[in-house]
Amino acid sequence: MKSFIFLPLALGALPLAAAEPPPRAGIVADPCGSLPPMPAIVVDYLTRAKAALAAGEPLPPRSAEGTAIYTKWQQDLLLADFAGLCRYAAANRDLPPATPDRVVFIGDSITELWLAEQPDFFTGDRIDRGISGQTTTQMLARFRADAIDLKPRVVHIMAGTNDIAGNIGATSLDRIDANIRTMVDLAEAHGIAVVIGSVLPARQFNWRPEIAPIEPIAALNARLRQLAAEKKLVFADYYAVLDDGSHGLAKIHAEDGVHPTAAGYAVMRPVAERALAAVR
Question: Is residue 98 situated within a structural domain?
């Protein structure tokens, strides 16, 4: 199953006119009520793409104009809700009280797509709070809303890919490390156990082909392993089971070299299960 988050936009039958974002505001009663709406051309494309996927047909063709509208909308969303706090706001309000076994998975697209590919993994009060494209800076900003306030017994943190890709600008391993350490500190201060997930292998990022990720991923994973040992946390080493021997993901495990397929998540699942079982 594919996520429409990664589908290329195409010029549809609708006029090429992006919705004008609402005026910038400061303090409002409902910040999530002022987000820029999805442009009609994006809605149209996703509808046609979903139908194509269901029929086993190729996705609609790309267009520069459609992509430009999508990009502008994403930029407006980033300005309006940098941390993605609105993404799960309603879902969080609708959650039943936490059970003693609640686990929250916080991360980026790799976490977000896990639910789509393996919905049966997210049963028994396991909650997916991944957001595509996010960095550790953004996850830290929403950590209270999407993790602490949900009162889990365990939080599974898997992050760093988009930092290395420079999704919101230049960063450093020290900054990534500090963000993840702060999330760990916040969780522990609220009596929440932590599982640290490794960054997955990747030889290249298709959205940032100029980035060379192999060495930064290895360096960050070494830091994450050190953090887990230092804080006596459980470390879920997805890198070890997915590495194809050349610091990347085999096509069967990730068609684009970054985002796991159903087969990729099938390899990750036992690692996650063992990690959760090891939490005291």
Answer: yes
How far is residue 91 from each of residues 128, 129, 173, 229, measured CA to CA in Å? 11, 10, 33, 34
What does pTM read for this prediction? 0.87
- Spatial distance between the Cα atoms of 185 and 172, rounded to a whole number of angstroms: 20
Residue range(s) defining the domain that contains residue 163? 88-278
CA dihedral 210, 215, 216, 217 (to 10 degrees): 110
Q: Number of structural domains, the chain?
A: 1
Q: pLDDT (tens digit, 9 = 90+) per residue, 196-254?
A: 999 999 999 999 999 999 999 999 999 999 999 999 999 999 999 999 999 999 999 99
What are 106-165's pLDDT values in tens digits? 999 999 999 999 999 999 999 999 999 999 999 999 999 999 999 999 999 999 999 999
CA dist 164 and 110 (Å) reads: 14
Token pair belonging to 241? 């089971």
Q: Residue 167's domain is classified under what CATH number?
A: 3.40.50.1110
